[in-house]
Design brief:
Oligomer: single chain
CATH topology: Transcription Regulator spoIIAA
Helix content: 25-40%
Strand content: 25-35%
Shape: globular
Distance between the termini: 25 Å
Number of helices: 3
CATH architecture: 2-Layer Sandwich
Radius of gyration: 13 Å
Largest sheet: 6 strands, mixed
Number of domains: 1
């Protein structure tokens, strides 16, 4: 499922949902901030429904590989996705290679509550359920 790109000034924000190794992945291009939050929030909700209803393991992952900036609103939506998955006893992970988003997650010590992986390929190795 592809969600339409949203132009924000001269910046493009795009989200794609894909299935990979039993995970529903929300892949983001652009910045996660107040301007893009409504689209991101809807994408997470849609992906969670897909993950719960598909033949997959129910795992939901957010891929920040093509994200340069995340503000507190973006972090809040990611944590909301985690809460939604935990309420259903389903896995949640964030793909965050080295870069600004990973540095922020590390500074906030969110690796203590989020499963952080360096690339999409690492999702297959995670234990489900």
């Amino acid at each position: 499922m592809e969600i339409p790109a949203v132009p924000c000034a001269s910046v493009v924000f795009d989200i794609q949902q894909l299935q990979l190794d039993g995970w529903t992945v929300v892949a983001i291009v652009g910045d996660l901030d107040l301007a893009t939050a409504p689209v991101f929030r809807r994408a997470i909700a849609s992906a969670a429904i897909t993950a719960h209803s598909s033949d997959s393991t129910g795992g939901l992952a957010v891929d920040l590989s093509a994200v340069d900036f995340v503000d507190s609103v973006g972090i809040g939506i990611i944590l909301g996705g985690l809460r939604r998955q935990l309420d259903r006893d389903l896995p949640f992970a964030v793909v965050a290679p080295s870069g600004p988003p990973r540095s922020l997650l590390d500074r906030l010590r969110l690796g203590q509550i989020l499963t952080l992986v360096d690339n999409r390929g690492a999702l297959a190795a995670l234990q489900h359920g």
